[in-house]
Design goal:
It is built from five helices and six strands. A hairpin with a 3-residue loop joins strand 5 and strand 6.
């Protein structure tokens, strides 16, 4: 019995430590992706290595493979030899297609395939106080509002950002 209790405590402590590391890694990834978007908007960058070097200059360490994954997740495309944010036929929504309510506090954002992460980063950058958090997949984002009253205000503010 003592061994089982020890193993249970060990597993619990390991899970707690790993979940903390995961949240730190998530924050680092989110910060890195924000920086990538800002760099690409600010100046022409033509290679992943050049982008990685720019990140390093701003104090954000990254490997080539993490930069590659970030570019894919953000939906960044190469156009005329440089990275740029895709625009679908001049679409001002930058990938946001629809917003819908789900329950009392959730908002579901539908995006063009591969664009959800970039849209979520822009929503997070806007620092809308009524938003508790976002969770992005490939083409869908779950946005948690503080309360039912905030839900519609958040939707309105997001459409103002993207429309």
């Amino acid at each position: 019995m003592q061994i089982c209790r020890y193993n249970a405590n060990y597993l619990h402590n390991s899970a707690s430590k790993n979940s903390g590391a995961r949240s730190v890694n998530t924050m680092l990834k989110r910060d890195r992706q924000k920086k990538i978007l800002n760099l690409i908007r600010a100046k022409p960058i033509g290679t992943q290595e050049a982008l990685r070097e720019q990140l390093e200059r701003t104090g954000v360490s990254a490997t080539q493979s993490s930069v590659s994954r970030d570019l894919e997740e953000l939906g960044i495309v190469k156009h005329d030899g440089r990275y740029s944010l895709p625009h679908s036929n001049g679409d001002l929504t930058r990938g946001l297609v629809a917003l819908d309510v789900a329950g009392d506090i959730l908002i579901v954002a539908r995006c063009l395939p591969g664009r959800a992460s970039a849209v979520a980063v822009e929503i997070d950058d806007a620092a809308i106080p009524q938003i508790v958090g976002t969770l992005a997949g490939e083409d869908t984002i779950f946005i948690a509002a503080r309360d039912q009253k905030s839900q519609r205000a958040v939707m309105k503010r997001i459409w103002e950002l993207f429309g």
